[in-house]
């Protein structure tokens, strides 16, 4: 089903456009438009969220930046072979995926290009994408590899100092933040789906407010942390004292390979761990491991052991195993966030969007981690947006 001429057309511009999540999201948009799939897993299709008056899923067109080689049709074949979606679907959409691949531009990588030049080039790519396809809005979504935490330097705290450093030919920004900087300057909302620094730096927060742009983040909540944010309130509300919560995460694919680097894993471990203490109200003992297992491909497994005390100090435990397909869990949320961020921009909102904390491990603009309360905040916001439509 194609959108009508009056349906808002929204661009989803992926940083890491040939990665697993971006490819799955692109396949999803094409499949829905062709009537070859259903929007299972898309929170934005639920009545409470759709009440915001969101742009249609079938009106989303994708593009992006990528530093790697390959093509979307080839990547889709690889993901289909790994069981992420049916092989027949990848074959049926091969021509459309090739067209989407033509909308991918070279990303910012190591080389002779200054960050100022790279930012200017990225801005031009975004504006050209918007103009060429007659889009009402372009939302930039970072689904690239996780970066280490950003250094604490004056340039990252002040927009004036940052601009001056870029003008001098310096490179003060982490790559994820360079994309966010360019996106804001091009007039695009940003979604930080990874724990990388991205738009979270104070200087970029200043830029977003100056340009009147919303942003959402960070680190999409798709698996084990989603379960924690649902289960931890149960212990708190039943006055059961959690003594330890140990977690082992086994990841394959590019994300697992990246997180095998201890420096890159710092960002992920921090966002995975902070919600539990916030919900329970006290520190919780227990190790948390992320291990790379190449054989798992795009799948991930989490093993958790929770030790808790009940009445008169009786010791008990909960153990669970989560086995999920990372891209199939993340892709619909990415499309949700594109629609919600576009609607927020249309409604004139700027800065971090705390109501979208429901989607993230490290929610921007709020300290709330309880999944039920996050859901209430999201649906209340969507109702208010709908009333303003």
What does this structure look like?
- The chain has 389 residues and is α/β, with parallel strands linked by helices.
- It folds into two domains: 10-219 and 328-388, Rossmann fold (3-Layer(aba) Sandwich), CATH 3.40.50.720; 224-325, 2-Layer Sandwich (Dihydrodipicolinate Reductase, domain 2).
- The protein is built from 14 helices and eleven strands.
- Strands 3-2-1-4-5-6-11 form a seven-stranded parallel β-sheet, sandwiched between helices. Strands 8-7-9-10 form a four-stranded mixed β-sheet.
- Helix 8 (175-185) runs parallel beside helix 9.
- The radius of gyration is 21 Å and the shape is globular.
- The model is unreliable at 1-6 (pLDDT under 50).
